[in-house]
Specification:
The protein is α/β, with parallel strands linked by helices. It is about 30% helix and about 25% strand. The chain starts with 11 loop residues before the first helix and ends with a strand. It binds S-adenosylmethionine.
Length: about 200
């Protein structure tokens, strides 16, 4: 964990630069092939571009994001401001959880992961997409300029340097089973990891 103070996410500019990457919908289809009628939560949904597509697939999908500007300028209904570390939902509320390029932003990663696991029902599934960074914060330099006007604060933005192995290690105490992970160069270097929610 970084000792830097966390980034403050209250920026219209940051909300606007985050755009849909169609590759993420492809990953959703792979990991969660039948979303029709399912209760789905997206954590770190930005302005809701992926959320919109989840809803179009027939999912009852809602999203949370820490940036109030993203929610205020959201593309769809069903978005609310919330921190990944304190999700305002009952246990086992969702059939599936999707989080794209967000877990690397969480200073209290274990708490955020525990919350994500908590709100998914046993038998449900979690899809996590996160950057493959050779150096922690490297891909967050533009965001550090937007949020802090300082590229050297990139490690306050990406405060976790994750790999599938590291992520699995962070989840060993949680009731999940690793399903699959992979690496993709599509767009930029990134990992996808899928976990099945176990009972208990
Ligand atoms: C790189 S953006 C990704 C946005 C969107 N998922 C996408 O792929 O375009 C990271 C998102 O995580 C949000 N975020 C950062 N920390 C968060 C937290 N603790 N709880 C919820 N959302 C958070 C940011 O506001 C931002 O919208």
């Amino acid at each position: 964990m970084s000792s830097d103070p966390p980034a403050a996410y209250d920026s219209l500019t940051y909300a606007k630069v985050n755009r849909l990457d169609p590759h993420h919908l492809y990953r959703v289809r792979e990991a969660l092939p039948d979303l029709a009628g399912k209760e789905v939560l997206e954590v770190g949904c930005g302005r809701g571009h992926l959320l919109h597509l989840l809803q179009r697939q027939g999912a009852h999908a809602i999203g949370v994001d820490a940036n109030p500007q993203a929610v205020a300028n959201g593309a769809v209904d069903g978005m609310q401001v919330a921190d990944a570390g304190a999700l305002p939902f009952d246990d086992a509320r969702f059939d599936a959880l999707v989080s794209v390029h967000t877990i690397e932003h969480l200073p209290e990663l274990d708490q955020g992961l525990a919350e994500m696991v908590r709100v998914v029902r046993p038998g449900g599934r979690l899809l996590l997409i996160y950057p493959a960074e050779p150096i922690m914060g490297l891909w967050a330099i533009p965001t550090a300029v937007i949020l802090h006007r300082n590229p050297f604060k990139a490690r306050q933005v990406h405060c976790q340097k994750l790999t599938p192995t590291r992520l699995r290690a962070r989840l060993t105490t949680q009731p999940v089973a690793h399903d699959w992970s992979d690496f993709s160069w599509r767009g930029w270097p990134q990992y996808t990891s899928v976990f099945d929610r176990l009972g208990g």
